[in-house]
Specification:
The chain is of the alpha/beta class. The chain has one domain: Vaccinia Virus protein VP39 (Rossmann fold, 3-Layer(aba) Sandwich), CATH 3.40.50.150. The chain contains 6 helices and 4 strands. Helix 3 crosses helix 4. The radius of gyration is 16 Å and the shape is globular. 26% of the residues are buried.
């Protein structure tokens, strides 16, 4: 029944916020249910937006989130750059797609969701890496 409801939606026409909210909600619910959320804290979107507004990322810069969860900061930074720079050069667009954003996440399932959402939103090649207990990064 739930699968039928999900399949009935046309997800590609929904805004990024709707999908992001859904994924974050599911992850948060899962963390609460399993009681092993590895200390996961999902930063409120208003706080993420304030952080991005203060940082004011620019084309050509690299943006790294060392605890990216589902990628809210990375996605908001991407939107900030594209909304504040309407005439990006071909080189800037390539950098934005391929090199501008990297996130690291302790919980492997959360890193996968970040990579999946990034791919779904066409924000470039997924570069969300899971850092295990050894601290070594494994790209997703």
């Amino acid at each position: 029944m739930i699968v039928d409801l999900i399949d009935a939606e046309t997800w590609t026409i929904l805004g990024a916020d709707v999908k992001g909210d859904a994924y974050e909600g599911l992850l948060e619910k899962n963390a609460q249910d399993t009681k092993s959320g590895a200390g996961q804290y999902f930063t409120p979107r208003a706080l993420i937006q304030s952080m991005v507004d203060c940082i004011a990322p620019q084309p050509g810069e690299r943006n790294t989130d060392p605890a990216c969860n589902t990628g809210g900061f990375l996605f908001t930074a991407h939107n900030y750059i594209t909304n504040h720079n309407k005439s990006l050069t071909r080189e800037q667009l390539k950098h934005l797609k391929e090199k501008a954003f990297t996130g690291y996440e302790l919980v492997q399932a959360t890193a996968r969701v970040c990579a999946m959402v990034k791919t779904q939103q066409r924000l470039g090649r997924p570069k969300a890496a899971h850092r295990g207990a050894t601290g070594r990064a494994r790209s997703r």
